[in-house]
């Protein structure tokens, strides 16, 4: 009953603007890969809270570091009185990020404010007004980040008019209907844009996700990022990669762009960087990061607690070798999902890299028509069976699997078993549609 009261209070007191709900869960505890509700029910979490809890829930050493840090220095505004945890973290991030050039780091609180920095500083640094971004991209909800985004979740507001959106090369749903030479098609489209509404000499930067996650776990062709890098080099345009969701080891490398032979001019981090505490960062060329003084400041940016948590999070990822685990366990998970695909004709495609995996739900495999209703029913039924999973995608029909990187083989086997049961139930019509309808998801 207590659980119900939280939901009622949530309905009464909490703004709908922050709600993205798939089932009626409330949580009181988290340990490892499991969340617990007020009745002690456990849920195997395949979401990591939208890819934040990469190191799992309740890592004791983070708690210790936080206590230590709070007692030593609970706060300083790094804008005016910097302290050592911020500079230490910055140095580490510079070391981790490829690129043999002078780099600097900016800190914020969320992926959105970090991408807002990109929207301000990249044009400022280059003296060019325009930016290029991609349809389906999710860069955040604040005005600059929203303007760079091409996701339906940002379509409720008008962004700034200086951003041109190109189709993202989606091999499963190619924008031209033709899946061959998808990178070339995209570059051809870009050249058309350059020769009409967005001259390259007026274009400051291109921002891209190396894997579009909220866009539907879309993996572009292998040569895509290299082609973008080449275009940028040709025209003196900055290339920015948003690693907020799939960075920090999730794909089997620190950063997902490292699967391609490119070096970005700036990299955007957030979500999992703080192991659950809010922190974002942009690591990039000094000329971009220093292009403005006192121009993108948040009082608590880089605060001692969040930076201490991030330093410890990185240490844990290194110590537990979570990056290679993500690669190996991701492969195991992918194979398990592919076996489920053979059983259920409404699974159109299974794809992913490391521990970011997508299961595309369609009416039937040949027609590929997205089935968002079935997708939301799957999320709901999974919740009833003790498995947490969300969906993404501009058509609202891709189950997104981004568990903590600490997930074990046994837990993956359990997740596959629960997912199998879920799919079987949904296929058999064992769905409480009245309940499902109450959770609007991304709508
Ligand atoms: C790739 C990417 N960039 C930026 C953001 C925005 O991050 P935040 O919600 O922390 O503002 C998200 C959030 O899902 C994201 O997936």
TrEMBL record:
Required co-factors: pyridoxal 5'-phosphate
A GO molecular-function descriptor: transaminase activity
InterPro entries: Aminotrans_3, Aminotrans_3_PPA_site, PyrdxlP-dep_Trfase, PyrdxlP-dep_Trfase_major, PyrdxlP-dep_Trfase_small
Protein's UniProt keywords contain Transferase: yes
The organism's place on the tree of life at top rank: Bacteria
Presence of keyword Cell division: no
Keyword line: Aminotransferase, Pyridoxal phosphate, Transferase
One Pfam entry name: Aminotran_3
Family, per entry: Belongs to the class-III pyridoxal-phosphate-dependent aminotransferase family.
The protein, known as: Aminotransferase class III
Organism from which the protein derives: Pseudobacillus wudalianchiensis
Lineage of the organism: Bacteria, Bacillati, Bacillota, Bacilli, Bacillales
């Amino acid at each position: 009953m207590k659980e119900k009261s939280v939901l009622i209070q949530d309905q009464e007191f909490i703004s709908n603007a922050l709600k993205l709900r798939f089932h009626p869960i409330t949580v009181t505890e988290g340990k490892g890969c499991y969340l617990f509700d007020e009745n002690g029910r456990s849920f195997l979490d395949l979401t990591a809270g939208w890819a934040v809890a990469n190191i799992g829930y309740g890592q004791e050493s983070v708690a210790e570091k936080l206590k230590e840090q709070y007692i030593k220095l609970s706060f300083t505004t790094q804008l005016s009185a910097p302290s050592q945890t911020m500079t230490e973290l910055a140095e580490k991030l510079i070391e981790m990020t490829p690129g043999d050039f002078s780099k600097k780091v900016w800190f914020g609180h969320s992926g959105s404010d970090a991408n807002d920095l990109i929207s301000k500083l990249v044009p400022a640094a280059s003296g060019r007004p325009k930016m290029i971004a991609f349809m389906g991209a999710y860069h955040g909800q604040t005005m600059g980040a929203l303007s760079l985004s091409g996701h339906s979740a940002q379509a409720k507001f008008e962004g700034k008019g200086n951003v041109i959106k190109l189709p993202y090369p989606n091999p499963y749903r190619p924008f031209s209907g033709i899946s061959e030479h998808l990178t070339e098609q995209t570059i051809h489209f870009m050249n058309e844009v350059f020769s009409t509404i967005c001259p390259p000499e007026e274009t400051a930067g291109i921002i891209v996700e190396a894997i579009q996650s909220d866009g539907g776990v879309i993996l572009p062709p292998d040569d895509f990022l290299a082609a973008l890098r080449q275009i940028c080099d040709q025209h003196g345009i900055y290339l920015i990669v948003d690693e907020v969701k799939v960075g920090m080891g999730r794909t089997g490398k620190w950063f997902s762009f490292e699967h391609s032979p490119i070096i970005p001019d700036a990299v955007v981090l957030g979500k999992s960087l703080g192991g659950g505490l809010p922190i974002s960062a942009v690591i990039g060329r000094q000329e971009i990061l220093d292009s403005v003084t006192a121009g993108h400041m948040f009082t608590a940016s880089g605060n001692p607690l969040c930076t201490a948590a991030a330093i410890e999070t990185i240490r844990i990822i290194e110590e537990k070798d979570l990056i290679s685990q993500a690669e190996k366990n991701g492969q195991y998970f992918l194979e398990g999902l592919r076996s489920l695909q053979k059983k259920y004709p409404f699974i159109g495609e299974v794809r992913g890299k490391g521990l970011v995996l997508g299961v595309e739900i369609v009416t039937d495999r040949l027609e590929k028509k997205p089935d968002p209703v079935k997708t939301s029913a799957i999320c709901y039924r999974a919740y009833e069976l003790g498995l947490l999973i969300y969906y993404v995608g501009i058509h609202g029909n891709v189950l997104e699997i981004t568990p903590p990187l600490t997930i074990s083989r046994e837990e993956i086997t359990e997740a596959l078993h629960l997912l199998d049961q879920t799919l079987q139930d949904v296929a058999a019509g064992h769905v409480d549609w009245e309940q499902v309808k109450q959770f609007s998801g991304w709508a």
